[in-house]
Amino acid sequence: MDIPTTGHDPVLLPEILEHLALKPGAVAVDCTTGRGGHTQALASAVGASGTILALDYDPRNLEFAKQRLEGLPVRFFHANFSELDAALAAAGISEVDGILADLGISTNQLFEREYGLSFSVDQPLNMRLDPRGRTSAKTIINSWPEEKIANLLFQLADERFSRRIARKIVEARKQSPINTTEHLAELVRSVVPHVRSKGRSVEIDPATRTFLALRMAVNGEMENLERLLKIAPKFLKSGGRIAIISFHSTEDRLVKQAFRSAEQTGVLKVITSKPLVPSDAEISANPRSRSAKLRVAQKP
Ligand SMILES: C[S@@+](CC[C@H](N)C(=O)[O-])C[C@H]1O[C@@H](n2cnc3c(N)ncnc32)[C@H](O)[C@@H]1O
Fold first, then answer.
1. Same domain, 45 and 85
2. 104-152: per-residue pLDDT in tens?
3. Whose CA is nearest to atom 14 of ligand 1?
4. Which residues approach ligand 1 with their CB closer than 6 A?
5. Which atom of ligand 1 is nearest to the CA of 32?
6. Which of 11, 50, 66, 208 reaches 20 to 30 Å from 157, CA-CA?
7. Closest approach atom of ligand 1 to CA 100
8. SS3 state at 167
9. Are residues 236 and 90 in the same domain?
């Protein structure tokens, strides 16, 4: 797959601008700045009298965005969005008009060697997006007990063959440590049948779910999202909106349930009764957008 020159194409951009509806002078947080595509558009919407607080826990992407967006009303923070409260306190801001989180990884992170995330290119096994993270995928694969690895694959990515994969990993590491993405992907492919995904002509690599589950575990993705969903409404002004783009069902379920229960207690009002998804034109221009789902809620 081609990598765009910016390293990533922002998904659902017109939908984000329409639903966050930021006015000139507004203050908003982009929790996942990445390569700065959404941040740039949000900064144009709020103009010179507004502010975008741009967070990312990957300092390499944050630095790229900082250089790309020089001169725009954006303040950058190397922070995990699960610590939105601390980032806002550091910025001296108590309430904002909008919060965006575009979950997961940017295209460049998938292909750049240092991240060690790709099952289609051989790389040292890593998967830590925040270099401060303590546990890498290599540590999990080479030291966790078989049952714990199986549970991780099943719980985070609904991997039906979790037990088989975990058994194969534990057998293989007795011979030699599993240090590369290709070694791991080959082990998974040797025990998981190739299947065609519903409605798609292309085959899905059997290693997809294993790599997704590991990335989620290494980066604490579900825990981070849970905490963001819990604390974010406190920091929205009345009428302020939160927009979350997710890329797989485990994440989307969490967002849907959190928005629904916030609605039941009167904390938020759900704006998107069904998630918004990319148009056919967006999917053909940017195939990585195909699984994106956008949910938006508003503080009453
Ligand atoms: C899908 S990309 C965002 C792309 C971005 N919207 C753009 O237009 O370039 C996700 C980004 O969020 C970052 N990220 C993921 N989880 C995070 C978290 N818990 N806290 C802060 N940043 C996070 C990743 O490092 C990555 O740069």
1. yes
2. 999 999 999 999 999 999 999 999 999 999 899 999 999 999 999 999 9
3. 32
4. 8, 10, 32, 34-38, 55-58, 61, 80-82, 102, 104-106, 129, 224
5. 12
6. 11
7. 6
8. helix
9. yes
Tally the domains of the chain: 2
Which amino acid type is present at position 74? V
Nearest CA to ligand 1 atom 10: 105
Which residue among 63, 80, 106, 247 is best mutated to probe the pocket of ligand 1, counting the most ligand atoms within 8 A of its Cβ?
Answer: 106
Picking from 164, 195, 218, the residue at the C-terminal end of a domain is: 218
Q: pTM, whole model, 2 decimals?
A: 0.95
Distance CA 259, CA 268 (A): 7
Q: Where are the alpha helices (DSSP H) in 21-58?
A: 37-46
Cα 65 to middle of ligand 1, angstroms: 11
Q: What's the number of CA atoms in the CB half-sphere (13 Å) around residue 215?
A: 22
> Which residue, 75, 81, 76, is CA-closest to 31?
81
Q: What is the pLDDT of residue 203?
A: 74
Q: Report residue 251 as tokens.
A: 């994440």
- Ligand 1, closest atom to CA 30? 6
**Enclosing domain of residue 279:** 13-108+222-298
Which amino acid, one-letter code, is at 59? P
